[in-house]
Amino acid sequence: MSGILIIAEQRRGELRPISLELVSAAQGLRRAGEEVGIAIVNLAPENFVKALSVAGVDEIVTVKVASAEFDPDTFESAVGELITQRKPEVVLVAHSVDSFGYAAALAARHGFGFATDVFQIARDAGDLVATRAGYGQKVNVEVDFPGKSVVLLAIRGNVFKAPDQPGSPRVTSFEAPPAQSRATGREFIELSAGDDVDMTAAEFILTVGRGIGEEAKVAQFRELADALGATLGCSRPIADAGWLPKSRQVGQSGKTASACKLYIAMGVSGAIQHLAGMKHVSTIVAVNSDAEASIFGVAKYGIVGDVFEIADELRRLF
Amino acid sequence: MKILVAVKQVAALDEDFAIRDDGRDIDPDFLIRDLNEWDDFSLEEAVKIKEASAQPVEVVALSVGSDEVDESLRKCLAKGADRALRVWDTAIEDSDSIAIARVLAAVAKREAPDMLFAGVQSSDQSFASTGIATAAFLGWPHAAVVSNLEYAPGAKLALLRRELEGGLLHEVEIQCPAVLTIQLGINTPRYASLRSIKQAAAKPIEVLSLADVGLSAADVGVAGSLSRVRRMYVPDKGRAQLIEGDAAHQAARLAEIIREFKGAAA
Questions:
Q1: Across the interface, do B170 and A69 touch by the CB < 8 Å criterion?
Q2: Is any Cβ of chain B less than 8 angstroms from the Cβ of A306?
Q3: What is the pLDDT of residue A41?
Q4: C-beta pairs of B215-222 under 8 Å, 24+ apart in sequence
Q5: A258-291 burial, b if ≥16 CB within 10 A, otherwise e?
Q6: What residue segments make up the domains of chain B, in order of their start?
Q7: CATH number for the B2-224 domain, one of 1.25.40.340, 3.40.50.620, 3.90.550.10, 3.30.70.890?
Q8: Which of A21, A156, B106, B221 has the CB geometry, 3.0–4.6 Å to A119, for a possible disulfide?
Q9: How far does the CA of residue A166 sit from the closest CA of chain B (Å)?
């Protein structure tokens, strides 16, 4: 049992950036003489060889399957067979919607050591130790995998920085056994049709969260955002309740505030899925009545106070 | 027809809390318990399907835990579940999500539902793996992060949408019975009426032992898990620079930050 195997992710023909973050995550675990391999499971896996040729990768394994997009049965079967034959010590996948769909099943079926949403990996006297968060991100939890010869870890995104240097790994192919798929993928649907706002282009965003309490309060913050010249955004519960369109949702399943430079979060507690869409912004100001809210962990400036009072006072100044 | 809904009673930390003496978990005295937010949506989805169905459908809520979990199961009964099941044995303590999934699968084999729902993840430990591991133990088709579902009880196929990252959905047709993990926002969970809360209080909760579901102590706990907690600790967090003073003062400083940004952007 040796070596590190990464399972890359693609969607609609594009490599997902988190695939390369996994390459960096692997480097800290690599022991002398140990190799890092990255497998791409796809109908046309050879299309991804160029994008996967980065520093830190020794081998790219192309795994040809019948499905062009993620399919749980196909992935479980192909990745399971690959691990069984190669016996890596550690397998890294992304903590993503696709891996939610097969990694736990794979680990359960084969009895691999298993942990998800891992943001730190280390070795302690030969034992692999993974760190994840618990109790709504309030504590860190170190887990280990006694007696497991293969450990499968799902790694949190935006923690490890993808390598920026190219590499020249060797390319091999793996013959995956044909899988019996019990689901049929159909079309992809873009969620954000119908609203003209582009959260990914906004430089100044004012976001409201559950802390605003009721739908009637949305108007006050819309008016404030207009007065400030900010784009109004929201966290998931606000969009789920239909108070603002889904296209204004910032976070993992919504939009990433890619171009944002100033982000004011009002009444947003800071669930990890929300942080994924905005924690990179250089100036984050959090306004929340709960001094313990997670949002204060990523904000540059914090205001502990009543969001409505702050909003009223701020409105007077513009 | 039957839909089994696996639910979890989650725990949030009280304002003050202490780590247990063995350093591996929180002292339970400092935990505030509630039904997992995701499970409110999966239960609602099952109840909605039942209400829309021409044929009789039974919605069964299932949880693993000690008698304190009954509170959450009663909530499920009040919101439309017909029956509630709970599995417990002290050997289940220290189980990870995979060992819990083994228990859920054992109950599902006994109950033989037409569909099994679970939440995408729990709000406390956020493994996002229990439902899909349950499917593996059952050998059933499965789909994760379902944000839209068209399913008639007893149908051989269901049409669903998986909610992917970045505002994208993927439409999938899946064979049934299946395990689906349900995402927030798939529906609007109802509030329980006072009357239904009263009725739920009188309904029995069926309690099963490991032996009842055909498992032994070796299938659960650390022995039946794929990971083991070594240590739990409070991390040193990056901390925002707090703007102090009254609301007028705080807002004035915020206005300055906004004007600095606008000056730099201009």
A1: yes
A2: yes
A3: 98
A4: B215/B102, B215/B103, B215/B106, B217/B89, B217/B91, B219/B99, B219/B102, B219/B103, B220/B89, B220/B91, B220/B92, B220/B95, B220/B99, B220/B100, B220/B102, B220/B103, B221/B91, B221/B92, B221/B93, B221/B94, B221/B95, B221/B99, B222/B94, B222/B95
A5: eebebbbbbbbbbbbbbbbbbbebebbbbbbeee
A6: 2-224
A7: 3.40.50.620
A8: A156
A9: 27
Mutation target among A12, A70, A124, A139 for the B interface, most CBs of B within 10 A: A139
Strand order of the β-sheet with A170-175 is: A113-118, A151-155, A90-94, A4-7, A36-42, A59-64, A170-175
A109 contact residues in B (CB cutoff 8 A): 136
* ipTM confidence score: 0.94
pLDDT one digit per residue (tens) for chain B, 266 residues: 999 999 999 999 988 899 999 999 999 999 999 999 999 999 999 999 999 999 999 999 999 999 999 999 999 999 999 999 999 999 999 999 999 999 999 999 999 999 999 999 999 999 999 999 999 999 999 999 999 999 999 999 999 999 999 889 999 999 999 999 999 999 999 999 999 999 999 999 999 999 999 999 999 999 999 999 999 999 887 789 999 999 999 999 999 999 999 988 76
Hey, is the C-beta of A17 within 8 angstroms of any chain B C-beta?
no
CB contact under 8 A, B230 and A144: yes
Residues on chain B touching A101 (C-beta within 8 angstroms): 132, 142-145, 162
Residue type at A51 in one-letter notation = A
